[in-house]
């Protein structure tokens, strides 16, 4: 038997259809539970769902993303299938194709369906063009924004998901950025209630805002940091690294002292983000980018004694990752306000999304932090480093 599936059903005033949806899903092979998220319904949605055998949880905040987050948090199993509460006519046998499509390397299976009364304006005019321009590896999907899909929740930071209609895309892009494959199966014909122009207008604004935010976050460019211990990473690069992890991008930190207290601080604050990990520096030679990586950014200490191993390992990785057009950025050698012994910053990276994580780490590092960390971090590009300061690469 394949891994069991938890089904989540966000529902708001769907008393007329929820009983059938729950009953049909519970009868599917592989389904171990159905969780209905009552999203502030004013009718008997919750009562009908329980009567059909679902477990019901409540989410009072408006927004599909809020309901989905609450539903995922309530599930028992790693594989989660999201379905709509207003489905009336659908083929259960075809829905079963989603669990059947799981295989090695696959992290999400989209259910592609067709509705003879809906020409899919959001998909044709906004989502598919954006996907093809920004995430070409997903350009094969016919229904990238389908709200019917199955995914492995262990691959993503569930609490960081957006709170609105873009949540379905957010989950897909996070799974993809984590290095897993996104597959698609045909689940047949589904007839939805007609939607008016104001509905599509509101949805378009949310989806466009989401795509613009993901373009800024560059989630398929992986980040790798190397240092002697966690202190330098926490003080000078954690905001940048954490912001990438929060958005769903892969982050790997290699430390020579990977068992010390500062390494543990890093592990603790990054624990909610499955795409971030802290490893021993000796393992850096085995680094391999994720299957869907489109770029690489390497962070290393500025060359100045004591961190030779980390600098040399970072230089080797940078030199050997040509296909990913790697960048290499050097972290300051000392604290801000003190002499930096030749360090010449020429790159500034905003890290607003990682500030809370950096502040938590600094508090654990120093006992307290009187001021909030700055919303940006500065680095020197390796390309600007004089040849005399560059380590030899063997």
Automatic annotation (TrEMBL):
It comes from Roseovarius marisflavi. The keyword Translocase does not apply. Pfam families: Glycos_transf_2. This is Glycosyl transferase family 2. Keywords: Glycosyltransferase, Magnesium, Transferase. InterPro entries: Glyco_trans_2-like, Glycosyltransferase_2, Nucleotide-diphossugar_trans. Residues 6-87 form the Glycosyltransferase 2-like domain. SUPFAM superfamilies: Nucleotide-diphospho-sugar transferases (SSF53448).
